[in-house]
């Protein structure tokens, strides 16, 4: 094997020569002399086959009809019932949140009517406050659950 020193350089390939850019003045001079011909490029797409017979107005109308609507929030009347009942029971929002195992911010969102309706959370409020919050007669006291027939029957010994 041949000995090489640190000063020896091995060239495996050469870089391609770059074309020199022509400035505006040089291009104008070449145009005046007639050595260069120019062509204008069109920015219009030539392949418009996929646009044939498309009804853009119909598509735009469909897009407008399918707009996403905001989800339903808790009615303000329900929020007021929650707040009034909580105050009657001398509970803070933090106390009520602990009772239903939710954050304090959830309680305040429901009271202000900003929360998105969640039936499970409303059921927790109903059990904790013992007030009806869903359906008709919102604000009325919950009826106590009747005892099931299996628990009242006596067992024979």
Describe the structure in brief.
The chain has 157 residues and is an all-alpha fold. Helices cover 41% and strands 0% of the residues.
What features would you describe in this structure?
The protein is an all-alpha fold and 157 residues long. The protein is 41% helix and 0% strand. The protein is built from seven helices and no strands. It has helices spanning 24-33, 56-65, 76-88, 93-100, 104-112, 119-129, 149-152.
Give the arrangement of secondary structure elements.
Elements: H1 24-33, H2 56-65, H3 76-88, H4 93-100, H5 104-112, H6 119-129, H7 149-152
Protein name: Multiprotein-bridging factor 1
User: Can you count the beta strands?
Assistant: 0
What is the string of SSEs from the N terminus onward? HHHHHHH
Rounded mean pLDDT score: 80
CATH architecture of one domain: Orthogonal Bundle
Helix content: 40-55%
Principal-axes geometry comes out as elongated
Number of helices: 7
Proportion in β-strands = under 5%
Distance between the termini: 106 Å
Structural class: mainly alpha
Rg for CA atoms: 40 Å
Within CATH, the superfamily of one domain carries the name: lambda repressor-like DNA-binding domains
Ranges where pLDDT stays below 50 over 5 or more residues in a row are: none
| CATH hierarchy, class of one domain | Mainly Alpha
CATH topology term of one domain: 434 Repressor (Amino-terminal Domain)
